[in-house]
Amino acid sequence: MRGLLRALERVEAWVWVCLLLGVLLVGLVRVSMPRPVPGAALIEWATVTRLGGAPQEARRVKLPHVWDDEDPPWQGEARYEVSWPPGLAAQASPGAPLSVYFPRIGARYRVLLNGALVDAAYWETPGYVDTSVVPQVMNLPTHLLKPNPLDNRLVIEVRGQLLRKSGLSPFSVGPRDALESRFEHVYVWQVHAAWMVVACSTLVALLAGLIWRQSGERSFGFLAAASVAWAVRLGLSPLVHPPLSFELWFYLHKLSYSFYCGFIYLFLWDLFGHRGGRLRWLGISVLWIAPVWLAITTFSDNYNLYRIWTAWLAVVALTALSLMFHRARWGLDQNQRLLLVAGLVTVICGGRDFGVIQLGWRGDADLRWMPLGSLVFMLTLASVMVQRMGSYVLQIHQLNQELEHRVRDKEAELRAAFDRLREAERRQVLEDERRRLTRDMHDGLGSQLVQTLNLVRSNGPVDARVVTAMLHHALEELRMTLDSLEPLEGDLPAILGTLRRRIGPALDAAGVELDWQVEEVPPIEGLESRGVMQLFRCLQEVFANIVQHARARRVEVRTWHESGHVLLSVADDGVGLGAGFRDGGRGVSNIRVRAAAIGATVRFHDGLPGTRVEFRFRAAPQADTA
Amino acid sequence: MPTSIYLIEDDALVRDFVLRVIGQRPGWRLAGYSPTLTHARAHAAVAAADVYLVDLGLPDGRGEDLLRSLSRSNPGSELLVFSVFGDESRLIEAIEAGATGYVLKGCSGEELLAAIEQIRAGGAPISSLLARLLLKRLRSVQEAQVQAQQVSSDLELAVSAILSDRETQVLKLVAQGYVNKEIARKLDISTHTVSSHIKSLYNKLAVHSRVQVVRIAQARGLV
Predict the structure, then answer these.
(1) Contact B128/A482, CB-based, under 8 Å?
(2) I need a labelling partner for A190 at 20 to 30 A (CA). Which of A102, A306, A465, B195 fits?
(3) CB spacing of A500 vs B177 below 8 angstroms
(4) Do the domain assignments include residue A614?
(5) Burial of residue A289, with CB atoms counted within 10 A of its CB: 0-12 exposed, 13-18 middle, 19 or more buried
(6) What is the dihedral of CA A273, A275, A277, A279, to 10 degrees?
């Protein structure tokens, strides 16, 4: 059992649809087999006389009598006289109510029985009327009937409408119940079925249109347009008295059908992978030619022009179908097979209607297959669209997932690269710092210790005070290096305060008075520990000069802030730069190089008396919180 | 002023140096000596010395831990950190742990005596870097308290009292490199007042740090 189910699951959808549609066709054949109405007589011959100004000789015609087929086509009014069917008398029970049932009569008509008017359908109604679009039934009053049935004379007067194949089809006279039931049966097939298809088409048009607007997918647009056209076509078809002029009604009725065909071809072209270029050409040609051709047809009142047009549409339909079958040799997907099956069923329906109505094939001409066939086709199109939409959604989902994966991968890569970069930077910073510290240790502490060691090792007497002073100096060097590592954040007063602890005792010892005029100033841009050390060394050099060479008694250290710059000056009252000052001298050039390394400029002024060294730093941009 | 000193230091040379220096002052005596943190934990507090000289780098632990427990058990004693470099980042932690002053190893005997006398007289040593760090820490404590007070209004501590205007002025001037004498002249106060301001700031940082630690612990549900 389970195996059977699994086997059934493997059967593709188009096979199922094929089977279902086959059953539907068989059912249709069975339902629409020609069946005479029980007890009624079918009238197939009449004597017609034209009324009004036209030639008035009577003529016996075989029904259906189509005015547009006359040469020239008939207009105006005509009277059909029918002799009472002899069989009817025998079958109908005397006194039973009788009716006349016309499958197709129009555009307007009235019925007279034995010279008395039975009823008139839209005979005097102004505007455009066409009763032939729906079946008609009319009751014959019993009191008008003659006692001898063969004395009854039935007259039907018809007013025609050019281009509408006006005239009279074979009709039935017989028992009222049987004919009314027949009328209702056909009415359901022709009118209710049409309205049902209109509703379905409108729904499909709405959905396809919405999807088209959202997705911009062209095939949905084609489907929406085709569905609208088909809904208009079928909506206009069963209107006996539409609120339109005949010309407009006719034009819209035929144009909507043509547009339906044109858009369907475009849709098929799109669905069949754009390979059928000819399909596209056919669709576009129909869309462009139809409005012009049909306008000419409407205004020339020549039904033959419309015949040519329908023939052209038939050729196009057959070509499209053969193109699709031709395309099938390349292999078809599920949807294309499904559409081919549905298209074939629709063509069979259309062919059957044409054959039965026009060519006299066996079948009930009153029961048209086409509305049902078009419904099948429309629903198939809709299901194909739904499947296509579903596959898009799936594709988008898959693409999204793939994209997400790739974004995640790239993010991980980026993060790894960033981490590597940060690690490299960190190492670089560490390496730089290590080098700086090594250099400082080497130049400062190291050389100081080596000097002390050499002194202690020298053979001469070692003065403990000298050694103490040297070791003290070494310790001070080390402390200065450590100070430079403190988080000073470019705070110049704090840097100077720290330095003061180191140089203060030396100045005291040399008898130089320190005048501290340091003010709060904005932080200096980019002055980190390396820069602090450079600044320490610069100032060490400056103060060493003051202590050793300037013979100063007083030194003033001052800071201030001036238009985006922080300034520091060290001024003494000593001998001044004098003639011995060399701008490129070792001490001076050292100061300049170190100052340049921390982005500062340095100027030496002859203070008269004394010397003033001025450093100019760039202030860090201030936060706006102040 | 008779002064008892307790030394926590693992270096025997330094111990001898301290002993020698203390001997120079009549009435000063060494109340005890611990070469390790464990020994100090067991004996230092009981000795009830006036001044504790604490080396931060003990062989079996951090001197800061000892400072914390001593500041609690012996609130009347002065806790002097004995440091090789006087690197301010570490000193500020020691002050938070309860130290009231510091003295550099390698100083002369006179310097050590001066430091002990200064601290006994209610003063406190400071450097511009230390002042800068102190200012920063106290401000951040203050900000944290203001924020905490905005959240809950039932704080016992008056927030504005942490840093007075005068204390801020003193700290700023120290940070700018001014020495106590200059500050006293600038603010028209005595050098002694300057020192006591600084000492009270050390205490405040220690107290507020402790309060903050307790409060953080409470917030995390640890106490």
Answers:
(1) no
(2) A306
(3) yes
(4) yes
(5) middle
(6) -60
A518·B176 Cβ contact <8 A: yes
> Which of B120, B145, B161 is the C-terminal boundary of a domain?
B120
> What is the tens place of the pLDDT at every residue in B50-77?
999 998 888 888 888 899 999 889 888 9
**DSSP states along A240-269:** SS-SS-HHHHHHHHHHHHHHHHHHHHHHHH
Are A386 and A497 part of one and the same domain? no
Binding-face residues of B in 111-150 toward A, CB within 8 A = 127-129, 131-132
Residue A409 domain-assigned (yes or no): no
**Strand pairing of A98-102 and A116-121?**
unpaired
CA A142 from chain centre, in angstroms, equals 68
**Which of A604-608, B76-80, B120-124, B154-158 is predicted least confidently?**
B154-158
Give phi and psi for B208, each to the nearest 5.
-70, -35
Å between A503 CA and nearest CA of chain B: 12
Q: Which residue of A has its CA nearest to B89?
A: A486
* Interface contact flag, A501 B127, Cβ < 8 Å: yes
Highest mean pLDDT among A193-197, A622-626, B32-36, B134-138: B32-36
Region of residue A578 (phi > 0: left; psi between -120 and 50: alpha; otherwise: beta): left
Pair A254, A164: CB distance under 8 Å = no
CATH number of the domain that residue B144 is part of:
1.10.10.10
CA distances in angstroms from A193 to A184, A197, A350, A368, A370, listed in the order given? 12, 6, 15, 10, 10
Domain total in chain B: 2
Residue B172 touches chain A, beta carbons under 8 Å = yes
For residues A202 and A274, membership in a common domain is answered with yes
Contact B176 A478 (CB under 8 A): no
Interface contact B182, partner A, CB < 8 A: yes
Query: Which domain range does residue B116 map to?
Result: 3-120
Residue B11 and residue B110 in one domain: yes
Whether B110 and B49 share a structural domain: yes
In a domain? residue A432: no
If asked whether residues B106 and B34 sit together in one domain, one would say: yes
For the question of whether the overall pTM of this predicted structure is more than 0.80, the answer is no
Yes or no, beta carbons of B86 and A493 under 8 Å apart: no
Angstrom distance (rounded) from CA A77 to CA A70: 14
Whether A398 is in a domain gets the answer: no
Nearest CA in chain B to A503: B177
Same domain, B14 and B108: yes
Tens digit of pLDDT for each residue in A573-600? 888 776 556 665 667 888 888 888 888 9
Residues counted in chain B:
223
Place of tokens 């000063």: B28
**What local confidence, expressed as pLDDT, does residue B153 receive?**
54
CATH classification at residue A601: 3.30.565.10
Find the length of chain A.
626
Is B129's CB within 8 Å of A482's CB?
Answer: no
Place of tokens 């040297």: A470
Radius of gyration of chain A (CA): 55
Looking at A391, A425, A454, which one is the last position of a domain? Answer: A391
* Res. A92: pLDDT tops 60: no
In a shared domain, residues A345 and A217: yes
Domain that holds residue A586: 487-618
What are the two backbone dihedrals, phi and then psi, of residue B201, each rounded to the nearest 5 degrees?
Answer: -65, -40
Assess whether A346 and A364 both reside in one domain. Answer: yes
**Of all residues in chain A, what percent carry a pLDDT higher than 90?**
20
B175 touching chain A per CB within 8 A: yes
Q: Are residues A21 and A48 in the same domain?
A: no
Instruction: Using an 8 Å CB-CB cutoff, list chain A residues near B174.
Output: 497
Q: What is the CATH number of the domain that holds B20?
A: 3.40.50.2300
User: Are B177 and A479 inside 8 Å of each other by CB?
Assistant: no
Q: Which residues in chain A are contacts of B177 at CB distance < 8 A?
A: 493-494, 496-500, 516, 518
